[in-house]
């Protein structure tokens, strides 16, 4: 059996082990019997416990990446006695795939090792850092040290790393609901006394591919958004770019309100936002619409009675996570003043 060179290249590149391209051998059933014998010895050494370590330590010095990977997995079977050798490999092995495998083996040996995670977050390869941040996010409940590491990962230049950390640190989970849905109002006949539309134009808009805007307090009422694009709602964000975008973006707008009318309360009503949205009024989080892909065309309402400033200037921020085609706040947004 032969495996094509093209297949080998694409598979190894996808795995992130760049140096494998130089050290891998095109696989044949009868190729390099000496290497096959070494691999058998390495795999057998893992079953011997600490007594097998000398064979594995020697294998880690071999230039063949596949052999070193086999040695790492065997050391994972040995466990704690192999810890120092694995740690040395994490710090010094030239291949990212080997270092990632080392990290996983070390995590099996000691699942709550913040020093190990920090070391891996400083790795030059995003494949290793992405593995590290996934291990960190699994370490619930989050201690102050774990939270600090997640904040560090949130600043990672790789979106694949920063997104995972940002999602783990996301503090805004209250669903929010319409005033009409709240228990104390369910049996009362509330009607819309007044509708106040928010203008569709002149919103400040900013893409957030790393999903870290909340770390920079983009939801604060006094956040300086002067450098953001001026865009609008009731249309998709694809009009701004020439390629599909799946991810997060933020909208901000100031709006004036008249004197407070006679009312029971006020809802903010979105015609639709593709596909999930989180809403702040005057810097206060009021709720979310996050029911997954099916939410892209669903209207939703959130009670904002306690956060509006009647007779004054107000500010709204909306974070949207959407998918192509049609991402963004693509239908109108209104305030509905309710009375009985």
Offer a concise description of the structure:
This protein is an alpha+beta fold and about 350 residues long. The chain has helices at about 5-15, 20-25, 35-45, 55-60, 65-80, 85-90, 95-110, 115-120, 125-135, 145-155, 160-170; strands spanning about 190-195, 205-210, 230, 245-255, 265-270, 275-280, 285-290, 300-305, 315-320, 335-340. It is elongated and about 85 Å long.
Strand arrangement within the widest β-sheet reads 3-2-4-9-6-7
CATH homologous superfamily designation of the largest domain:
Leucine-rich Repeat Variant
CATH architecture of the largest domain: Alpha Horseshoe
**Could you tell me the radius of gyration in angstroms?**
27 Å
Shape: elongated
Spatial gap, N to C terminus: 78 Å
User: How would you characterize the largest beta sheet?
Assistant: 6 strands, antiparallel
Estimate the mean pLDDT confidence: 89
Give the count of structural domains: 2
Individual helix count: 11
CATH fold topology of the largest domain: Leucine-rich Repeat Variant
Q: Which structural category do the helix and sheet elements fall into?
A: alpha+beta
Please write the CATH class name of the largest domain: Mainly Alpha
Key features?
single chain, 340 residues, alpha+beta, Leucine-rich Repeat Variant, Jelly Rolls, 2 domains, six-stranded antiparallel sheet, 11 helices, 10 strands, 34% helix, elongated, disordered N terminus
Structure notes:
With 340 residues, the protein is α+β, with helices and mostly antiparallel strands. The protein has 2 domains: 5-169, Leucine-rich Repeat Variant, CATH 1.25.10; 179-339, Jelly Rolls (Sandwich). It has 11 helices and 10 strands. It has a 6-stranded antiparallel sheet with strand order 3-2-4-9-6-7, with no helix packed on it. A 4-stranded antiparallel sheet has the order 1-10-5-8, with no helix packed on it. Mean pLDDT is 89; it is low at 1-30.
